């Protein structure tokens, strides 16, 4: 694990402070003239959190536009590492608590993942956790089961890398399963609950995989 330095913390703190300031002003302008009665405190708190995350997401996307995170290895003391550590602070402080809470309904979590940069098709939902959404693409009519984990990054001692994860159409990723960096899942495939799919594994269309580590259980039928 590499150390996050003070300049990176300072830049993230600037983003956070600006978003907080904008959210307070927006909250005040939106609700100051509305009589909310006994519910005023609750409404202001909930709307304040909403506006805070709205502006934080804007700054996060702006940061990625100016300082994008590339596929592959992040070398020490590079511009990529500087960007990555700011990116990481957004997740550690703001986004991972939302993903891990289980409080947000699944359809709304899809909107959250889309806002973070994931590509998710129609009628596709995740009740698991999608880490590094900018490196994840999921097709149509696909379900990622409860507490499944999609992990496009590799952190091994001092090595940090990102490799995209691609999941096709009409796929089921079973509950509590884990897909590691570089995995590709073809259309109509199924990953059994509790499986661990190793880095770089290519699962073909219509195949069924399961186990720890995951192996093919059933090949695609001829009709598929």
Shape: globular
Q: Report the CATH superfamily of the largest domain.
A: Hexapeptide repeat proteins
| Number of domains as seen in the coordinates | 2
Category by helix and strand content? alpha/beta
Spatial ordering of strands, largest sheet: 3-6-11-14-17-18
Write down the CATH class of the largest domain.
Mainly Beta
Largest sheet: 6 strands, mixed
How would you state the average pLDDT, rounded?
A: 92
Unreliable segments of 5+ consecutive residues = none
| CATH arch. level architecture of the largest domain | 3 Solenoid
Order of helices and strands: HHEHHEEEEEEEEEEEEEEEEE
- For the secondary structure, the number of strands is 18
- CATH fold-level topology of the largest domain: UDP N-Acetylglucosamine Acyltransferase, domain 1
- Gap from first CA to last CA: 44 Å
The radius of gyration over CA amounts to: 20 Å
- Helix count equals 4
> What share of the residues does DSSP label as strand, in percent?
15-25%
Folded structure, characterized:
A hairpin with a 2-residue loop joins β8 and β9. α2 runs antiparallel to α3. This protein has 2 domains: 101 residues, no CATH class; 117 residues, 3 Solenoid (UDP N-Acetylglucosamine Acyltransferase, domain 1), CATH 2.160.10. It contains 4 helices and 18 strands. The model has no long low-confidence stretch (mean pLDDT 92). Helix content is 39%, strand content 20%. The strands form 4 sheets. It has a 6-stranded mixed beta sheet. Strands 2-5-10-13-16 form a 5-stranded parallel beta sheet, covered by helices on one side. Strands 4-7-12-15 form a 4-stranded parallel beta sheet, with no helix packed on it. The protein is globular. The protein has 224 residues and is of the alpha/beta class.
């Amino acid at each position: 694990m590499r150390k996050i330095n003070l300049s990176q913390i300072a830049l993230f703190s600037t983003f956070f402070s600006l978003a907080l300031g904008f959210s307070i002003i927006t909250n005040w302008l939106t609700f100051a003239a509305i009589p909310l009665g006994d519910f005023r405190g609750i409404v202001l708190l909930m709307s304040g959190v909403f506006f805070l995350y709205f502006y934080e997401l804007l700054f996060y996307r702006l940061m990625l536009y100016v300082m994008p995170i590339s596929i592959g290895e992040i070398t020490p003391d590079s511009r990529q590492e500087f960007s990555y550590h700011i990116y990481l602070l957004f997740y550690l402080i703001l986004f991972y608590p939302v993903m891990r809470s289980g409080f947000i309904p699944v359809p709304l979590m899809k909107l959250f993942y889309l806002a973070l940069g994931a590509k998710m098709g129609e009628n596709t939902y995740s009740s698991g956790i999608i880490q590094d959404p900018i490196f994840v693409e999921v097709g149509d009519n696909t379900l990622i089961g409860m507490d499944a984990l999609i992990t496009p990054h590799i952190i091994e001692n001092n090595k940090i890398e990102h490799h995209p994860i691609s999941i096709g159409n009409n796929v089921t990723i079973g509950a509590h399963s884990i897909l590691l960096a570089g995995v590709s899942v073809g259309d109509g495939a199924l990953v059994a609950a509790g499986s661990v799919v190793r880095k770089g594994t290519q699962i073909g269309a219509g195949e069924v995989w399961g186990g720890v580590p995951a192996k093919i259980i059933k090949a695609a039928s001829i009709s598929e």
